[in-house]
Write a structure and sequence with these properties.
The complex is a heterodimer of chains A (180) and B (165).
Chain A lengths: L9 H7 L4 H12 L2 H16 L11 H20 L19 H7 L2 H11 L2 H12 L4 H8 L3 H30 L1
Helix pairs in contact in A: 2-3, 2-4, 2-7, 3-4, 4-8, 6-9, 7-9
Chain B lengths: L1 H13 L5 H11 L9 H14 L5 H13 L10 H26 L17 H40 L1
Chain lengths: 180, 165
């Protein structure tokens, strides 16, 4: 997504900024865990972006910048509600978004456990994993969004992936033992 | 062959050394339906990640966002309000003028009338005597005028006094 020039109208906004909505929503959902909360946050973030007006033209990478705005907004929400210390359940998707019963059987419980594990990772590991392994972002963009040096990005990613590997292998062993 | 490639890619992935391209390759290889059992836990990881990446913002929320944006006018352009700036500029100008005037008045040398008194100095005793006589004459004339004027005023006061008697 390129640099925006001049004052943006609603049409340009739809074309240039709105396409990042799903990425922003997934990030908000990862951080806030509750879909309704994440949806409110995203509405607020988009209004915040829209109200930037001419300031938007100074932004080189609108996607990375919007992700950063979302991250900071969600952190503010978490702080204001003092939720960081609360252990929340992993979010539940609407019925339509869930995989079919057949798919669930095929994927087993590992996927559900994966979501739970990601939710329980320390904040930095969770965010780095979200941006790299779910959004497929380059390290440079992750550095920019999280305002984190490259070394820390890689360390957090390494730790998050190791935890996931351990969990999945453990679940797999358990399933094999019970299956036999 | 694919087994070896998968193993290499997974090692790099879990060591945090894989590139985005390698991670995409890994995803593609793990999508295969007839994978040997040993790769299934890894397949589950990538399936789970893809499932997370498929989550989208509900369309009603997107509509709400668009409605909110369209209900607001175009983004406000930050306009410079000149009025307060002009006030500050005027105040600064007045201050500068005052300071300039004050500093100039301090640094200006005191100007005195350049009278060359030497021109009026008498050169001979006769001239000096003449100057002296003229000065005395002027003084006595002024004294006489003063005395006459005082006598006149006394007479007037006496006349007024008689009137009241």
């Amino acid at each position: 997504m390129g640099r925006l020039r001049g004052v943006m109208n609603a049409e340009q906004f739809k074309k240039e900024v709105l396409p990042v909505k799903d990425k922003l929503y997934r990030l908000a959902l990862r951080m806030l865990r509750e879909p309704a909360d994440a949806q409110d946050a995203i509405q607020e973030v988009f209004l915040k972006i829209w109200r930037q007006g001419t300031a938007l033209k100074k932004i080189d990478n609108i996607e990375a910048w919007a992700m950063r705005v979302t991250k900071n907004h969600c952190l503010d929400r978490l702080r204001s509600r003092n939720r960081q210390t609360q252990a929340l359940e992993p979010y539940q998707l609407d019925v339509d978004d869930r995989p079919s019963a057949q798919e669930q059987l095929e994927q087993g419980e590992a996927i559900g456990q994966l979501r739970e594990l990601i939710g329980q990772l320390p904040e930095k590991q969770k965010l780095v994993l979200q941006l790299r392994d779910i959004e497929g972002m380059a390290y440079q963009e992750i550095e920019e969004i999280l305002d984190m040096p490259l070394g820390q990005v890689k360390t957090n990613l390494f730790r998050a992936r190791q935890k996931i590997r351990k969990l999945l292998l453990a679940v797999s062993k358990e399933t094999n033992i019970h299956g036999r | 062959m694919e087994d070896k490639k998968l193993n290499q890619l997974l090692e790099r992935y879990f060591a945090g050394e894989s590139s985005l391209e390698e991670e995409n390759q890994l995803r593609t290889l793990l999508q295969s339906r007839d994978l040997p059992e040993k790769w299934l836990p890894y397949q589950a990881i990538f399936q789970g990640l893809e499932q997370e990446a498929a989550i989208t913002l509900p369309s009603d929320i997107e509509k709400e966002i668009l409605a909110q944006i369209e209900s607001e006018t175009a983004p406000r352009i930050r306009q410079i309000t000149w009025k307060p700036l002009l006030r500050y500029a005027a105040a600064v100008a007045v201050l500068l003028i005052a300071i300039t005037w004050w500093t100039n008045s301090l640094s200006e040398p005191e100007t005195t009338a350049g009278i060359d008194w030497s021109k009026y100095e008498p050169e001979t005793p006769e001239e000096a005597a003449k100057v002296y006589r003229d000065a005395i004459l002027k003084l006595s004339t002024a004294l006489n005028n003063g005395a006459n004027s005082a006598a006149k005023n006394v007479k007037r006061v006496e006349t007024v006094g008689q009137f009241f008697e």
